[in-house]
Automatic annotation (TrEMBL):
Record's protein name: Uncharacterized protein
Length: 247
């Protein structure tokens, strides 16, 4: 049902200047118009409709005021909590951001389980199979670099022309053998499927320990019996590892 009142021309006054009935929160001129006309609704129904409309408007205004008030409080609290105020040498106040404290950092980690998962993912990225192999073989690699540093250019050229490998060449071969053998050992331990930092550390240490026990240089790697002993030790350590971690 459409209602029209007053002039059809546009009111020159702003909407903010319209006077409202405080009890019904509807324009006074509309209220006066309704008072002089007969409605199709009964008096009881009409009053009920006005009451519901008034309550809806009042509730909406109260909610808007509460939202604005809470937002202002939150903003002030956030500013107060995130800023420090200090005085410079001239006495002027300067606001600087607060650094997170150890307590706030700890509180932000509400679930230890999530933090443990984060630690594990970080460790797995930094100690993946390739990195762990290089760490285990790093002593041999370092010895090779030191050998090159001691060797003169002419000695390097002479070593290339000789049939027998020199010390540096043997160290280079030993380093390559170390990475190749340990790569296969990591696959044997199913390193990429391990589910905790403790398991990964244990597997890496066992693999390195077995390698160092059986091979001291490239000649040991080429010795068939040494390699067979290494294979036996690796199999035994793998079985013990799987039994310990229920694999």
């Amino acid at each position: 049902m459409g209602l029209f009142w007053g002039s059809t021309k546009k009111n020159e006054k702003d909407d903010d200047e319209i006077k409202y009935n405080e009890e019904t929160t509807i324009p006074i001129d509309l209220q006066d118009y309704l008072n002089t006309k007969e409605s199709q609704l009964s008096n009881r129904e009409f009053k009920s409709l006005l009451r519901r409309q008034s309550e809806n408007v009042k509730t909406a205004k109260e909610a808007e005021l509460e939202l604005g008030s809470s937002s202002n409080v939150d903003n002030v609290d956030n500013v107060d909590n995130s800023m420090n105020i200090i005085n410079d040498k001239d006495g002027n106040k300067i606001e600087i951001p607060k650094l997170p404290s150890s307590i706030s950092t700890t509180n932000s980690m509400k679930m230890p389980k999530n933090y443990k998962s984060f630690e594990f993912e970080k460790f797995r990225r930094e100690h993946n199979e390739k990195e762990s192999i290089l760490i285990n073989c790093s002593e041999i690699q370092n010895s090779f670099y030191q050998c090159l540093g001691r060797q003169k250019l002419w000695d390097r050229i002479s070593a290339i022309s000789k049939l027998d490998s020199d010390e540096c060449t043997k160290l280079a071969d030993f380093f390559i053998a170390c990475t190749d053998i340990q790569k296969k050992a990591f696959l044997t331990f199913d390193y990429s499927t391990l589910e905790s930092i403790d398991e990964m550390k244990s597997a890496s240490n066992k693999i390195d320990k077995i390698f160092n026990k059986n091979f001291k240089n490239i000649d040991d790697v080429r010795e068939k019996e040494n390699f067979l002993n290494y294979t036996k030790d690796l199999r035994k350590e793998r079985e013990d590892f799987f039994a310990k971690y229920n694999k």
